[in-house]
Automatic annotation (TrEMBL):
<dbReference type="GO" id="GO:0005524">
    <property type="term" value="F:ATP binding"/>
</dbReference>
<dbReference type="InterPro" id="IPR003593">
    <property type="entry name" value="AAA+_ATPase"/>
</dbReference>
<keyword id="KW-0547">Nucleotide-binding</keyword>
<dbReference type="Pfam" id="PF00005">
    <property type="entry name" value="ABC_tran"/>
</dbReference>
<keyword id="KW-0067">ATP-binding</keyword>
<dbReference type="InterPro" id="IPR017871">
    <property type="entry name" value="ABC_transporter-like_CS"/>
</dbReference>
<feature type="domain" description="ABC transporter">
    <location>
        <begin position="4"/>
        <end position="243"/>
    </location>
</feature>
<dbReference type="InterPro" id="IPR003439">
    <property type="entry name" value="ABC_transporter-like_ATP-bd"/>
</dbReference>
<keyword id="KW-1278">Translocase</keyword>
<keyword id="KW-0813">Transport</keyword>
<dbReference type="GO" id="GO:0016887">
    <property type="term" value="F:ATP hydrolysis activity"/>
</dbReference>
<protein>
    <submittedName>
        <fullName>Heme ABC transporter ATP-binding protein</fullName>
    </submittedName>
</protein>
<comment type="function">
    <text>Part of the ABC transporter complex HmuTUV involved in hemin import. Responsible for energy coupling to the transport system.</text>
</comment>
<dbReference type="InterPro" id="IPR027417">
    <property type="entry name" value="P-loop_NTPase"/>
</dbReference>
Length: 256
């Protein structure tokens, strides 16, 4: 059963069609990169799936219509990392990560253990006692990623439930090392009954870490498939206006 099914999604804003009868299906175990030029509708699609925007069409999550899910139940299985956070209160980083456990009912010691484990996985344990507003943009993004990990964290003694992770330009503020670390962790999570949908601008980063690329332009689906099939010079030049060359290292294309 698909974890996500979108049918005929259409989104209009100020007379502009941001999504145009878009269909998309995601299966567990997959990392899908959402690509396209600015204004293609990538972030709008994620906001429709998360419920931040209302659109026409049908969205089914884990076999049920999105509107049939109680918010607290859905928060156990759907995690969203937005492009940026406007959080300005002087919370400690460990408190920000612990916010991911708010939908869960559990003893405080268990919440603290999961919070610490999520921070360790995201490589931000050393920031636990620092005030969140004092961090750099990249550090904030990594702390927010730890918050989403904590939100989706499942107890090892319970049957695993399928999950969906939406990442909206998660690498935009990160250096090269942390870009690859974050996407490597997303890949590991996908191997645990999870589908990952990530908005990226770097075609080579997407080709290296995603097993499926979905290319949008003006709210329309332009290409959908493995990186080797999607990243072709004609399509890249058509969408980006860039006369690219594509080299191949095994199954991984390299855009130059």
């Amino acid at each position: 059963m698909p974890l996500l099914t979108c049918r005929q999604l259409t989104l209009l804003r100020s007379g502009r069609r941001l999504l145009d009868r878009l269909d998309l299906t995601l299966e567990a175990g997959s990392v899908t990169a959402l690509l396209g030029p600015n204004g293609a509708g990538k972030s709008s699609l994620l906001k429709c799936i998360s419920g931040e925007l209302t659109c026409d069409g049908e969205i089914t999550l884990f076999g049920r219509p999105r509107e049939a899910w109680p918010a607290n139940q859905l928060a156990h299985r759907l995690g969203v990392l937005p492009q940026s956070s406007s959080l300005s209160f002087p919370f400690l980083c460990e408190e920000v990560v612990a916010m991911g456990r708010l939908p869960h009912s559990e003893p405080g010691h268990q919440r603290d253990r999961i919070t610490a484990a999520a921070m360790a996985h995201a490589g931000v344990s050393h920031l636990a006692g620092q005030h969140y507003p004092s961090l750099s943009g990249g550090e904030r993004q990594r702390v927010q990623f730890a918050r989403v990990l904590a939100q989706l964290w499942q107890h090892p003694d319970t049957p695993p439930a399928p999950r969906l992770l939406l990442l909206d330009e998660p690498t935009s503020a990160l250096d090269l090392k942390h870009q690859h670390q974050l996407l490597t962790m997303a890949r590991a999570l996908a191997g645990r009954e999870t589908a990952v949908l990530v908005v990226l601008h770097d075609l080579n980063l997407a080709a290296r870490h995603a097993d499926r690329l979905v290319m949008l332009a003006q709210g329309n689906l332009m290409a959908d498939g493995p990186p080797r099939e999607v990243l072709t010079p004609p399509l890249i030049e058509r969408l980006y206006g860039y006369p690219a060359r594509v080299l191949h290292d095994g199954d991984t294309p390299l855009v130059v």
